[in-house]
Amino acid sequence: MSFLLIATVILVFIVVFQIAKASEYVSVLKGEEKTREQSNRINGFLMISFLVLGLIGVYWCNELFYHKTLLAQTSASKEGENIDLMLKITFAITGVVFLLTQILLFYFAWKYQEKEGRKAEYFPHSNTLEIIWTVVPAVFLLVLVVFGLKFWFHITGPAPKDAIEVEITGKQFNWIYRYPGADGIFGKTYYKNINDEKSNPLGQLWDDPNNQDDIVETSELHIPVGHPVKLIIHSRDVIHDVGLSAFRLKMDAVPGIPTTMWFTPQFTTQQMRERTGDPDYVYEISCDQMCGPGHFGMRGIIVVDTEADYAKWLKSQKSNYATLFPDKQPNAAGADSTKPVAAVVPATAGAKQ
Amino acid sequence: MSNEVILEGGQAVSAHHGEVHEHHEHHDTFITKYVFSQDHKMISKQFLITGMFWGIVGGLFSVIFRLQLGYPDTHFPFLETLLGHWAPDGKLNPEFYYALVTMHGTVLVFFVLTAGLSGTFANFLIPLQVGARDMASPFMNMLSYWFFFLASVVMFASLFVQTGPASGGWTTYPPLSALGGASDGSKAGMDLWLIAMALFVVSQLLAGLNYISTVLNMRTKGLSMTKLPLTVWALFFTAVLGVLSFPVLLSGFILLLFDRHMGTSFYLSNITLASGQVLPNEGGSAILYQHLFWFLGHPEVYIILLPAMGMASEILSINSRKPIFGYMAMVGSLFAICILAFLVWAHHMFVTGLNPFLGSFFVLLTLLIAIPSAIKVFNWLTTLWRGNIRFTPAMMFAIGFVSLFISGGLTGIFLGNSALDLHLHDTMFVVAHFHIVMGVASFFGMFAGIYHWYPKMYGRYLNNTLGYIHFWVTMIGAYCIFWPMHYEGLAGMPRRYPDVSNWHSFNMFGGLNEFISAVALVVFSVQLLFIFNFFYSIFKGRKVRTQNPWHATTLEWTTPIRPGHGNWPGEIPEVHRWAYDYSKDGRDFIPQTEPLGDHESGH
Questions:
Q1: Cβ neighbours of residue A296 under 8 Å, at least 6 residues apart?
Q2: Contact A284 B426 (CB under 8 A)
Q3: A82 touching chain B per CB within 8 A
Q4: Does domain A164-351 bear CATH number 3.55.40.20?
Q5: What Rg do the C-alpha atoms of chain A give, in angstroms?
Q6: pTM reported for the whole predicted model
């Protein structure tokens, strides 16, 4: 089979080469001028055909794939809607430039192909033209920069005060989530305390009472709908990236340097299933920064709940401390199931780490 | 003794700066003529052929990993035969997939499109077009090739180490690249990668200093800077970019070597490996490396692109039989791109946690590059307008270059805008963008250059029919591969995923991935056809019988059909006018060596 394939490929090569060789002999016999004229005609025709077929191809490609892109869905975060708007503005501007320049390029190539009797025009420069195509692009770029930076500063600016904070830590090759518990404060961690065998994957310091109610999760990241969520992003080993394509956001996880990202989910997972008509729809966290051989399998799941479901879920979680030290009595600062959960009464920013 | 020539046995021999080389008839041995040659023309061919070797290797890597991407569930037994334990049961091991991606990037960016492109054409064209016997320092020039050769040997050797070649991506971000415990590719393969790259930087510096001093000091009589062809301007700016940015890359690599072997913590902090090992390093910044890397990494894009721009400008003008439109604007925009290239590196780092305020400056400066780029595109279009266009294979590739540069440049406006980068960073959109604008477009510039100057290099023509087949298949293929890839990126599909079938969000492009892989295979085969054409024509191609086959104005076409070492057998010609007097005063072209007429003004 593979022998046959190789033989065919070689055969095709030889045939192509022989044709090319023969056409070269023919061109020598016919004379250089005549050959050039002929190949000019053929290639000029191909240039304009490439333009027409290419533009049809661009249209067809869009028909085939547009509905598979995220542009066809509303952003799952409120902030992402700005990004979609920005994408559309950029598409409009660059689309016009693309059509204009590609059409001119191939049209000129076809139109001004060498012809008997035609003389090229000596036209070395024109200040007016050059000023036009310096200033016009500059104006359009200014529009893009202004919109872009407006959205950029909003999205990367400080999270709203009532944002729920969740810590997300990347490691080769999965994600670990931590909730601050009822006190709304993350307990201290130190990386040298990390010990997976002792079920301390984040290196929590047990002598810090704030750690006693911290919930550590590895299966799913639960967040409530319609409420700003701030992720505090860490990495345990190499650089990872929290990629949230449905929310139009991503941010690197860098060892030793915590980063943050916030957004406001606007649809629960259930709502997304209905909107997409896909009963298996899930929000995925993809690692978007090359992190080693398991990079492409570093998948996290986000479950966006209604506020009530989220509160219920949070209440059902046991803190890592309580799981590890079931005999010890949590002290006053620890988890107290009678207190409302963090989602309902977020702690003030000053109380946080 | 100045730049005088000594003629012996019909062969021109150079004598620079009081140092006289007395060559006698048939004195050149095989070794001095073909191996340790100091002739810039031979060195350029050495760069080109080594670059072609790497082009095949790097292209083959992409064909292999495209097989994996297009057919993630299929077993290819021949892969196991070829790659052994890297492809058990004919399926690529993910670690090796990453090694292939890494080497594909490294090889094509540095070894093909830097050394193979500017190494070839700066060496070949600078002395010929400025009217010099050779480079300012032919010996340093020879060294630059041999350092590149050494770098090639070390890089090639790294493919065969037990733990595999470097596999952390061509950017080799630490901590992944610093820690053998994090990835097999970060063991011996990574050390060899760093050594090869260090040798490569040495080669680039030796070459770049030579190019700069040749352009500045060795132009022939009458050839002021503003009379230079745009190829020389572009190659000059390329050399300046390289000389200023490669040392920064080297410093980044040295710190990485220290972190790997000497226990320093430049890039390492708070790390616990998956094995449970806790590293003592604290206080380093992984982001520091990215700053050092991209301070070269972004200019590198222009190191690759500028020579292609210069050659496309020259070829478009010659074959339109028109002067390049807006010569000074073309030089000015090259200069602007060159300056801006140093001020935009952090646009690769918008999502690293970079200060958003700082990021906003990088957005502004990045989008500013679109202005000189727009000037260039419109000037090229106006050069074609009302021309009398000859579709030589070189011209086809030059037109293709402009088309690809537009397509890929426009998607840069998306990615340079940080708000959109939050969404599109590290997706297939990025892959599509840079392959079109810096990969394929630069390749088109390189092909244009090869087809155009091949008659000067070897005294023979490449086969035209094969050239046209090469152009059309590559042009159509490149768009078929990379255009639909943008849609994968707009669906959020991350790059560097060998298999997306487990992802609910990205697994709907199966058919497209197969299509892309099939086209990639076809395009790769056509490149082999080109390589065959190249080597066949060296020996059997149609002979060049006229001194100036393209009716061009520049100095290289005043040399003999097969110039010897020293380029001109007699005096070096004097230059009287710019390089673009086409269709002026009713004449098809006026060579640069022709004095201005009584009532004629310069450009």
A1: B94, B494, B496, B497, B498, B499, B500
A2: no
A3: yes
A4: no
A5: 31
A6: 0.93
Helix (H) or strand (E) holding B7: strand B4-8
- Among candidates B382, B472, B494 on the partner chain, residue whose Cβ is nearest the Cβ of A288: B494
Optimal mutation site among B63, B81, B176, B588, interface A, most CBs of chain A within 10 A: B176
Listed range (B287-291, B372-376, B562-566) with the worst mean pLDDT: B562-566
* Cβ pair A246, A74 in contact under 8 A: no
Q: B455-467: per-residue pLDDT in tens?
A: 999 999 999 999 9
The tens digit of pLDDT for each residue in B397-426 reads: 999 999 999 999 999 999 999 999 999 999
Strands A220-224 and A299-305, how do they pair? Answer: parallel
Q: Which residue bears the tokens 């055969």?
A: A11
Q: Do A109 and B173 touch (CB under 8 A)?
A: no
- Cβ of B468 within 8 Å of Cβ of A39? The answer is yes
Q: What is the CATH number of the domain that holds B154?
A: 1.20.210.10
Q: Please state the separation of Cα B203 from the chain's center in Å.
A: 15
Asked if B386's CB is within 8 angstroms of A287's CB, the reply is no
The verdict on B427 touching A (C-beta cutoff 8 Å) is yes
Domain ranges of chain A: 15-68, 75-112+126-157, 164-351
Closest CA to A209 of A325, A298, A317: A325
pLDDT of residue A331: 55
Spatial neighbors of A315 by CB under 8 A, at least 6 apart, are: A337, A341
In B226-340 the beta strands, taken as DSSP E runs, fall at none
pLDDT of residue B516: 96
pLDDT, mean over chain B? 92
Report pLDDT digits (tens) over A135-191.
999 999 999 999 999 999 999 999 999 999 999 999 999 999 999 998 999 999 999
Asked whether residue B421 is domain-assigned, the answer is: yes
Task: For residue A50, give how far its alpha carbon lies from the nearest alpha carbon of chain B (Å).
Answer: 8
Question: How far off is chain A from B43, nearest CA to CA, in Å?
Answer: 29
Residue range(s) defining the domain that contains residue B548: 4-266+284-589
Sequence-ordered list of residues with C-beta below 8 angstroms from that of B264, at least 6 positions apart, any chain: B255, B258, B284
pLDDT of the residue at B252:
96
Q: How many C-beta atoms lie closer than 10 Å to residue A315's C-beta?
A: 12
Q: What is the pLDDT of residues A53-95, one digit of tens each?
A: 999 999 999 999 999 999 999 999 999 999 999 999 999 999 9
Binary contact (A243, B492; C-beta < 8 A):
yes
Q: What are the E-state strand segments in chain A?
A: 164-171, 174-179, 215-217, 220-224, 229-235, 240-244, 249-253, 259-263, 283-287, 299-305
Judge: B466–A17 Cβ closer than 8 Å, yes or no.
yes
B382–A129: do the CB atoms touch at under 8 Å?
A: yes
- Torsion sign (Cα): B29, B31, B34, B37: negative
Give mean pLDDT, residues B564-590: 92
Cβ within 8 Å of B, A 304-333: none
Residue B602 inside a domain? The answer is: no
Which residues in chain A touch residue B169, judged by CB atoms under 8 angstroms apart?
Answer: 290
**pLDDT confidence of residue A329:** 63
How many structural domains does chain B have? 1
pLDDT in tens, B292-326: 999 999 999 999 999 999 999 999 999 999 999 99
> Rounded to the nearest 10 degrees, how much is the dihedral formed by the CA atoms of A247, A252, A258, A259?
-40
Local confidence band at B34 (pLDDT 50, 70, 90 cut-offs): confident
Is residue B314 a part of any domain in this protein? yes
The answer to whether the CB atoms of A115 and B388 lie below 8 A apart is yes
